[in-house]
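Thread: coenzyme A complex, take 2
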Amino acid sequence: MSLGNDVVDLADPEARLDGLHPRFAERVFTPAEREALEASGDRHVLHWALWAAKESAYKALRRVEPRTIFAPRAFEVDLPGPPRGEASAAGRVRHGGHSLALQVSLRGGALHAMAWDLSGPLATTIRCAVGAAGSEPGADAQGLAARGIADALGLDPGEVRIVGRPPAAARGERPLDLVISLSHHGRYVAFAWAGLALSPESPSRPATAEVRTRPDPARARRAAKPRRLNTVAPR
Ligand SMILES: CC(C)(COP(=O)(O)OP(=O)(O)OC[C@H]1O[C@@H](n2cnc3c(N)ncnc32)[C@H](O)[C@@H]1OP(=O)(O)O)[C@@H](O)C(=O)NCCC(=O)NCCS
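Output below.
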């Protein structure tokens, strides 16, 4: 199991398409992606949706293949219907032999992408959230993640620490059995995380967005066992 996320502030000067290198699209997007851009009714949104999808997939794959490099054209994005209004769009990102699920959403000026791979024993629940950046976006993203995880697991936010690069979550000194990803750009911070399904009696409230993955009987049995919050070292 792995996941990655990326947020783009569409109103940030860095997101202006007329400020990019003239050959940016050629260098970064595959021929199929460039065709989709040419045909698109909203090139600005699709451009950054494709970019954020590639970054998300890169962050996810780095966890399973640490030698992965960010060569954007090697991440092939299939996003049949880019996000419109407040709706999310679903797609896939392929890289080498990997194929990752993709969700892209648009909330105000924040374009958020999350890519994940369900193989492996870990996750049955995936959540993500976008928040406002303050004066220290890196720390703000960590704070958003710590609060979201504490809220979902019924912990005190002060107990949850986000550490390392790529980031991992810990309760005090002990690693939590979760995969997390952070991002920040312009006015926004974002995080995504995946872990065992929360037990029904846990005092959880939904984060900004939630994706429930395919039910798997073996995982459901594991999830039904008492929750162990701090048992497995992050991979
Ligand atoms: C990881 C990377 C993709 C971040 O992307 P970004 O758009 O600049 O920044 P984002 O805000 O979206 O993400 C940054 C966060 O990602 C997380 N992160 C850092 N390294 C990470 C990694 N290897 N895997 C997953 N997440 C990582 C951190 O939480 C980081 O937050 P911080 O900067 O506050 O510590 C980028 O820094 C990177 O490593 N690029 C690829 C470099 C590369 O492959 N070069 C080879 C060229 S041949």
